[in-house]
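Practice problem: predict the structure.
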Amino acid sequence: MRIYLALALQALWTGVCQAAMQHYPAAWGHYDVCKSQIYSDEGLTWDYMACQPEAADMTQYLKVTLDPPNITCGNPPETYCALENPYMCNNECDASTEELAHPPELMFDIEGRNPTTFWQSTSWKRYPKALLVNITLSWNKTIELTDDIVLTFESGRPEQMVLEKSLDYGRTWQPYQFYATDCLDAFTMEPKTVQDLTQHTLLDIICTEDYSRGYVWKYDKTVRFEIKDRFALFAGPRLHNMASLYGQLDTTKNLRDFFTITDLRIRLLRPATGATMVDENNLSRYFYAISDIKVQGRCKCNLHANSCVFDKEKLSCECEHNTTGPDCGRCKRNYQGRAWSAGSYLPIPKGTANICIPNNIGPVTRVCDNELMRCQNGGVCIGNVRCNCPAAYTGLLCEKPRCESELGGCRGAGSGQPPLRPASSFGPWQLVLLLGLALL
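Answer:
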């Protein structure tokens, strides 16, 4: 008998430990399911969850503009020399000939072609006047970055450059990062790298010299804005703890906004020269050329949609949870029973949908949400809208014994129910203690 009791105690202990030490997947999913059907006492109903679209290559949805608009080479035709060899001058740019033209859309075409396709600027023929180019990428939609922004230069990498972002469709701009061969000289900033950042300084704007220096331009062509390294400050080096990152994104608006954009602007301020002095007798060596731009992200839908459609050259979320708008940023008509709220990543792994509810549901403060407003006395929260109560209880949160409204009250003989007793508060640890006492 003692052996059976000991085995029972061991099984119970194992179950409690597993419940106490719950393990989640190493990498979280994409919150790609907005709702699922569940069975309740009232039959089949919906269980709502936070959701968001899959990450994608966002360059297929953007519009690109250049400033000045006539900065692309080829009109009139021009011959260029190689930066590393000023006597090799056989590269021609001619906008009227398809094989020799280098329009801006070639920054976003399929990579891997031979020869490589790229956009190219006019040469620095007006030196010492600065060769300035603004490349603006616009989505007409808020998007959330999920991976590094990567620019691939076919010319030397710029000696001075600024990456900027906008959150209001290009009306205002903020710097994302500065790039220079000499940060102090160019921007009066101490040089730093993303490895110098901490959780407390992640939002700092830095100047880096990592992508602008030296004579290795022929082999190192990329310039990055490191998104994943910033994620790693919360999620760990291999992004194995995305729960921590999502928790921070959920509670820190400035952090969410840091990775959110409507537009990007690449400001090219000084081309590669490969030397300390500019060869004024051969200015056709100096120009900008970009073969590829990568921007990986997803539509921002405030965790209220799992897909985003591109129709009539415009991105828009396919909203769930009774929300509407390009970003699911407001409640549908007749579903304004409580103020609109973005979904939440927490609790992991399903999150909280924060659905918009019909106008006749009642005050927002009495709607269950499985977190702060839990259903009481064994009630089940259905769709974050209402509590499905056991037979003996009533009220918006199942907080009232049903017998209170009956003849004689809950302790009267006419109530038809036994006298109320305090609800059991035994948890798994108390059960272990009781079983241990039984063994003794």
